[in-house]
Design brief:
The chain is α/β, with parallel strands linked by helices. It has six helices and six strands; from the N terminus they run H-H-H-E-H-E-E-E-H-E-H-E.
Length: 132
């Protein structure tokens, strides 16, 4: 069975109480984003939407990190864009990194993006989904 099918089967089999427990665990793991700081991985459309939602909650991200070299050193909606290595060096041991990249047709997976940040030394990394 393909990995995606197995993951979907497990999600569907967990039931309502299992889903609530999983949601509570994710929420607890995210902790207080304003206290620890937030870094958004991906300065594109989804990153900007997530930025807007966080700002509505009174949370200002430390920066964006992005694999697009042409974005480095620029501001996106007033937030600096750094390379993933620079962002990890500056904030990796304390901030929560949230992956805000979604391309349904991309060859990279969410897991590979999370792994990229963890290999750079980022301690707390999550996909964007729990925020939505």
């Amino acid at each position: 069975m393909p990995k995606f099918d197995l993951q979907l089967e497990n999600l569907l089999a967990e039931g309502i109480s299992g889903a609530r427990q999983r949601e509570a665990a994710i929420s607890e793991s995210l902790g207080d984003l304003s206290e620890n700081g937030v870094v958004l991985f991906g300065a594109g459309n989804l990153g900007q939407r997530t930025l807007s939602g966080l700002r509505a909650l009174g949370i200002e991200p430390q920066c964006f990190v992005d694999n697009n070299k042409s974005a480095w050193g620029k501001l996106q909606e007033g937030v600096p864009v750094l390379s993933p290595a620079d962002g990890a060096e500056r904030f990796g041991n304390r901030a929560t990194f949230i992956v805000t990249i979604w391309r349904a047709q991309a060859t990279e997976t969410m897991g590979s993006r999370i792994q990229q940040l963890r290999q750079l030394g980022c301690n707390t990394v999550f996909p964007f989904l729990p925020l939505y």
